[in-house]
Request: fold
Amino acid sequence: MKRLSLFLFAVLLITLFSTCSFLYPLNPWDDANVYMTIGNAMLAGKELYVDIFDHKGPVLFFLHEWAGMLSRGSFVGIYLVEIVCCYFYLLYSWKTMRLFSSSSLVFPLTLLLGLITYTSDFFSYGDSVEEFALPIFAHSLYYMLCFVRDRQVPPRLQSFVIGIGVALLFWMKFNLLFFYVGGLLVVAVIAWRRNQMPQFWTVVLWAFLGFVAVTAGTLAYFVVHGTLAALWESYFMVNIFHYHGVGTNGEPPFWWFKLVKLGIWAVLMIPVFFLRVGKDVKWLVFGTYGILVLSFATLTVQFYYFLTLFPFFALGITWFNAPKTLSNSGEGAARKTFPLRGGLVAALVCLLAISTNWNVVTLLNGTFPRSVLQMASIINQNETEDSEVLTFSSYDTGIYQHTRHLPPNKNFFISSILDPEIKREQAEWVNSGKVRYLVREIGAINTCHEYYDAPIPANYRLVYDNEELFRYRFIWQPMSYLWNLTWPRPLLRHFMEPVTANQKMQVFERMP
Reply:
């Protein structure tokens, strides 16, 4: 019954808070639209990394290709995937809490964790790699905790599933595997200390087989299509040597800012010291959580990266209902009645979560961004055989999704990679005379737009020009980074106010 309740709650959370849901007219996030555009292009026969490009891993695009099979013009396929991911995230968070408590408090706190996760700014619009990582991390963390706390070795099937999860992350966004680097090291040391190395290597073997199964299938795709070199160059070489998140999120370009970020993450680790758990559990948290956030130090951090830390919040059960014994043997747990003040706090958190969620608030207020639908309507009403569309010097606005067009070029949007080849290719297509419509989005935060900005050719006329509210971010303000790390935001509104800005949406048509 509780599993069914978790599934129904997952449906509710994704339906209300993900813009992939049918409640929302579109997903306004450029990254999500890039994924769907590439998935649809692959359905039409374009070769990934050869005919169409983004630097994310192939499994992410396979997923969106499947979603495109279900619906060419919407995110309904991703909506269904999100429900499944949310359910397993809640399920293994619930299981993790039950490791440390047997009280009736576990289930409502699981629901509360789900609400906090999917209403936070870190969830954003939905359809991020970090969101898909949630159930994978929660599953792996649960079985690592079983081993570290209770000496329970994962069954072979679950070890195999862990390997599958690792492979899926590796072929979507490989830097997320830092979670496993720390976890594997801690678990190995504990297994060695307990003389459990044979069991440890058995788990590693089955996990490796799961990893190989997914990897073999992925590589087979590129071998069959003769594009293995393109995979290596576009996914590995670009991400390792060329992608640095240039200029994103409005971070100051000062050498000391990375030290500030590390200081904030150090502060976020302090509660781990006070968890009412055994020392081995604490070491596991330090090894997984600590190394994962440490890996972010070299990047210009996007706020949604921190969504991957939410599975650790399940250990917060120890703050509400401490077990009687905290040794690694895992003996019984204390039962405490749910205090009235705890219920009031939970109710307040729920109210804050829903009332401050950007997606819900803008939808109810009628301020949800819809310019792309108006732009698509203009293009669709004037459809001809030469109605080629190009997102010129711009992000993917979702125009390809809503006009049912495919990009004419490989580099169909500007990215965080400063590449003169992208500029050259875009200019070549504009000058070719084959593109009828140029679509531009000039965001509230200029990331790489200035690098890729180019004047609109004289033979194009402006047919649509509008500004709409951009999801607010702090830009260059001293407390901006702390704001983006804090949930819920209203706690800081006594000290600062967010900066709102508009983004400009334009359509240009080639003159006869």
Remarks:
- The CA atoms of residues 243 and 417 lie 5 Å apart.
